[in-house]
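Morning. Coffee machine broken again, so started the prediction first thing and wrote up yesterday's gels while waiting. Chain of 241 residues, entered below exactly as on the submission form.
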Amino acid sequence: MTAPGPAEPHGGSLTGQVLIFDADDTLWENNVLFERAVDDFLLWLDHPTLDGAEIRAILNSIQAANAVAHGYGGKMFLHSLKECLKRLRERPASAAELRHVDGLAAAVLEGRVELVPDVAETLTVLGGRHELLLLTKGDTEEQQRKLDLSGLVHHFRGIHIVAEKDVDTYRRLTRDLDLAPAATWMIGNSPKSDILPARQAGMNAVFIPNDNTWVLEHSELDDDDEGVLRLRTLSELLHHF
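Came back before lunch.
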């Protein structure tokens, strides 16, 4: 399926659009907390034969399977760390080891929020020009806690927390909110969850990469797709919308 191109050329300012924002690693930093926990895990583990890249590959495989079974977020991450520990030690983990892993994942589970630069000011301006929605995936309680801590909830007409962000999610949102796909933009850092499924559902998209995007969210984008606007920072949205 080929999605339509953008409502207007990227060089001009668009008015009266619906802008749907991703949350993690778009409005605030998220995966960097996971990466720090993984780095600490690797250092503590000090595996005698496997290097960091090999252990990360094992952990990524475990997380991919657990995401299907348990969803996304800190609880799944902690479960995956403990499963990885058991697999690499080739024995059940001790109580002391499990407590240590709990400590490594504490920052993730606490849901600390570090906003990206200029996010509040950007949303304030955009909210005066367009209708803003938020679409995030993960554990409902965990995502809601981060949203509350962010202080950004009031910018959005609707908050949608879902288990997965695939093409069916975007089609359902379009239908339930009676959105016009050609005048709707999904804004996020994940090719897999934000950009590609939104385009498949007929929406436009804005890709704002984050250096810390989770490896399981990576996917190739079509460089010739005119329905995808590529920006470097969130504040650049003000030059286009």
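Residues 207 and 230 are 5 Å apart (CA to CA). Going to sketch it on the whiteboard this afternoon.
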